[in-house]
Design goal:
The chain contains six helices and three strands; from the N terminus they run ααβααββαα. The chain has helices spanning 4-20, 23-32, 39-46, 50-62, 82-91, 103-109, and strands at 37-38, 66-71, 74-79. A three-stranded antiparallel β-sheet has the order 1-3-2. The longest helix is centred in the first third of the chain and has 17 residues, at 4-20.
């Protein structure tokens, strides 16, 4: 039988994994590694409604994986949980850059 302290540690790790265990949240965290981004930009890049992106951001914030910081009129998000960042880097070592394939980026290129 697991002791109380060990059980709690395993539960915390399982909660972190559950928070990352969605393709959209994995994509968000991957694209926030080493940079900041606002909801509007994420919405454009992901091609999802703002409410959907906000729900995923709330889950990530609630688990202490990302933090939003007000900069002027917008809130920008960044990864603050190094353990989560490490997990994502292991899962997706090639990274991702949604900005290269987003409609907004296509407009900039033309």
């Amino acid at each position: 039988m697991l002791g109380e302290e060990r059980r709690k540690r395993y539960e915390e790790k399982a909660e972190l994994l559950k928070a990352l265990a969605h393709p959209v949240r994995l994509c968000i965290v991957t694209n926030l590694l080493g940079r900041e981004c606002n909801v509007g930009h994420m919405q454009d890049c992901l091609g999802l409604p703002q409410s959907t992106v906000s729900q995923h951001l709330a889950t990530l914030r609630g688990h202490g994986i990302i933090r939003g910081e007000r900069k002027g009129a917008e809130v920008v998000y960044r990864v603050i949980n190094e353990e989560a960042a490490e997990i994502v880097r292991i899962l997706l070592p090639e990274g991702d850059d949604l900005t290269l394939s987003s409609p907004a980026a296509a407009e900039l290129k033309s």
